[in-house]
Amino acid sequence: MDNIVVLTGAGISAESGLATFRGPEGLWEGHRVEDVATPEAFARDPELVHRFYDARRAQLAQAQPNRAHEALAYLDAEWDGELLIVTQNVDDLHERAGARRLLHMHGELTNALCLNCAERSPVAGDLADTPPCPWCRAPELRPDIVWFGEMPYGLDRIEEALMRADLFVSIGTSGAVYPAAGFVQSARYRGAHCVELNLEPSQGSSFFHDSRQGAASDLVPAFVDELLDTQA
Ligand code: BJW
Prior knowledge:
Elements: E1 4-8, H1 11-14, H2 33-36, H3 39-44, H4 46-62, H5 67-78, E2 83-87, H6 93-97, E3 102-104, E4 107-114, E5 120-122, E6 141-145, H7 155-164, E7 167-171, H8 183-189, E8 193-198, E9 210-213, H9 216-231
């Protein structure tokens, strides 16, 4: 077991106080997804969308990584083989916990993307105030978030890692959104052992060899210990 791909979703950050997307308490309960998570909605009402993401950024600044983020960062530090942590999350809790081999496939809440020059830059202040792009000075910044219908980041790198993976681990994701929901099938087809750690079985649960139910802050540290024992 040398090469590992870990996929994380909103469930890993739930115990840090960040709402998931699709539960009864879901992030979008008070917002229609079409109002905030498509490029068309942003073109229609940029201020509404900016206010939504500015509020989430402010909330993120108060949140802390939990034991699951910390366990993955420990795995990153200790694992001698290849590892890629692919997160669908736009929060920065993995990197704040210390993870380095990390890819944000759905963008980052703390970054802005310029519609004029396509450069990315860290967000300083609220985007609702339409600050200028630090590169080209145009006041055309949008959140650096992959919305429905847009191409996720890093798919070539992810595909390559899945091709070489001996182990694929999916943590805290409902398996409702593609292409991430299809990674288990790609990994399994190429011979990887596939493990799911989630509060409940995901939509793609039957594709996993091993599906464990529970809170990420319990399951992930225990699983990381198991993995590091195989390396010792
Ligand atoms: C716990 C826990 C605890 C709770 N411990 N667990 C038909 C078929 C196939 C595809 C499509 C289709 N129609 C349209 C599409 C494409 C579309 C799509 O998938 N739509 C679906 C709705 C069907 N996808 C796209 O448009 C993507 N782009 C694309 O496809 O480009 C073209 C392409 C073509 C070919 C190849 C490749 C690409 C882009 C998707 C962008 C997703 N963006 C969002 C919004 C970001 C904005 C924002 O943050 O506001 O990203 S959607 C939202 O869902 C967010 C998440 O990253 C994503 C996944 O959600 P996640 O993380 O799984 O959260 P939840 O809430 O769903 O689940 C949480 C889980 O945790 C639950 O199971 C809980 O039980 C569990 N949990 N507490 C452990 N303590």
